[in-house]
Amino acid sequence: MDGGGPGRPRPAHRGGRGRGARAAHRGAARRRRRGEPAVTAGRVAPAVPRPVTGECRLARAALTRLAEPGDEQVGRWLAEFGPEEVWRAVRAGDRLPGASRDRWAGLRLRARRVDPGRDLAAVAALGGRFLCPGDREWPSQLGDLGAAGPVGLWVRGPCSLRFTALRSVALVGSRACSDYGAHVATEFAGALAERGWAVVSGAAYGVDGAAHRGALAVGGTTVAVLACGVDVGYPAAHRELLDRIAGGGLLVAELPPGEHPTRPRFVERNRLIAALTRGTVVVEAARRSGSLVTARHASRLGRRLMAVPGPVTSSLSAGAHRLIREAAVLVSDAAEVIELVGDMGELPPEEVSPAVPRELLAPESGRVLEALPAWGALGAEEIARRACTGEPSALARLRELSCLGFVERVGERWQLSRPGGRHADGGDPPGCGGT
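== DNA-protecting protein DprA ==
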């Protein structure tokens, strides 16, 4: 209290708190007229989304350059006053409640160089767009972030972010991953994409890059959530990868064009990855890996949290192992991931084991079985040559082995039975011959 009498609040600036109170009243009245959500006890009451006006889009675009991602104070202002009023107040100098003098001065300094129309034109020139809450493409699950939710999202790519995020899984892990981590991320991403799931990651080195490449390799959809503008090729070595993602998937950022990454922006980016997806898989992570931040966000948001085990001697898997001990579900392939995050009835394929042990096979059948490569398919003539038997005899043994569950036929060729029914595509991997 100041010396102006008991119960009189201390002024926040030259105009006292009167300006803030009047702004709050004006903002509440505008929200009622527009049918926007009201604020009750710090929470935003749900409301039916209305079309986003041009003035609202300009204001939100401006605020993405004004405020840092995850700024809960700005989120509360948006809920209380609306984006247009917040942007007007910053430009006019009408300090909003909760802002210190220094904070308000910093926001006003930033506002001097903000040109939302230029930013919108820049993203449009890239073939991108700026999404706001209320747009048809806006993912409603981002509302789970509350006041820390994004002001808006800058997006490049042909896919719908809303529909892509409906069936999406985050694959995250160490930047300095091992060959094992890169292999697992690639395999998981490829298998998820083949089953119609979008793969979401952060486009960083290591596990992130392997996950994006794995999805792209099978023609799947992948989403890169960036800690910079969608026009900034970061990291530099991933510029080609980012262009490929933008060509068939999505680049998503909270920051406007031209903005570069910082350490806090990387941290805040992780909450967006967790919120967009149905679940997060930590492929490989050391004890202090940034991917553990994504895991914590996923757990707090009620998303499925999964982790892949690694060698107990590897420090790169120590963080993943700790997650498994505390909260995460251990997963060893994409089918187990889908079982956890998928719709009811999406179960992993039943594993079919051979009807009899391998050692009980007749010697002739055993030699034919040994003639088949670990990967790929061979014709009967080549199998007979490798088993040193006649082709009719080899075919008879192959049919017998097929009935017992050891082998399966793919067109005119034969291969070892695969869990999940993944068949050869007609080509042989390097080192495998065929006829």
